[in-house]
Amino acid sequence: MTPSATAPLLVVLAVVAAVLQVGVLPGAFLEPLASPVLPVALLAGWAATRRPREAWPVPLAAAGVLGALSEARVGVFVLALLPALLVASVLRARERRGEGTAPRRLALAAASGALGALGYVALLAQFEGASSDLLRAAPALVFAAISTALLATMCAAALWRFRTSSGGLFA
């Protein structure tokens, strides 16, 4: 699948993930900070199997929906979603040709999902002025990071068939 063919699909998935993040997940967990961050999981899974530069529609589309459905600004959500893309981009940039094996890419998805979820929550708390509350919610944050990592890994596994190569001279 070419990047231009996958962009509309990715935007639809990002919008669905954002709506579920705001609408369904808060009611499914007793502690709202314990819920996985679905847009981060999608972003991490997509960037692990496809190229990270193809994942740019996720922060933009998801942030638009999250900003419209909450009190925070869209730009805050864009910034909060960027750590997952940054981690995936750095890890993929260090990958050499032939190293894009399934276990390696799934581990990349898990790492960028977990770190992206922690970055998402930390940045949103900082913008809301509630960063001091994060220490009290550490167990919930760890659960959110682990569950986001698992969802990112499942997303990467589901997208494995549509993966791209590790790069190289002409990739």
In whole angstroms, the N-to-C terminal distance is 14 Å
Annotation, overall tally of beta strands: 0
Radius of gyration: 15 Å
Estimate the global geometry from the Cα principal axes. globular
Largest sheet: none
Question: How would you summarize what this structure contains?
Answer:
The protein has 171 residues and is mainly alpha-helical.
Key attributes of the depicted protein:
mainly alpha, single chain, 171 residues
What would you note in describing this structure?
This protein has 7 helices and no strands. The longest helix has 27 residues, at 102-128. 40% of the residues are buried. With 171 residues, it is an all-alpha fold. Helix 1 runs parallel beside helix 4 (57-68) and helix 3 (38-49) runs parallel beside helix 5 (74-93). It is globular and about 45 Å long. It has one domain.
Walk me through the topology.
Elements lengths: L2 H21 L1 H4 L9 H12 L7 H12 L5 H20 L8 H27 L9 H21 L13
Helix pairs in contact: 1-3, 1-4, 3-5, 3-6, 3-7, 4-5, 5-6, 6-7
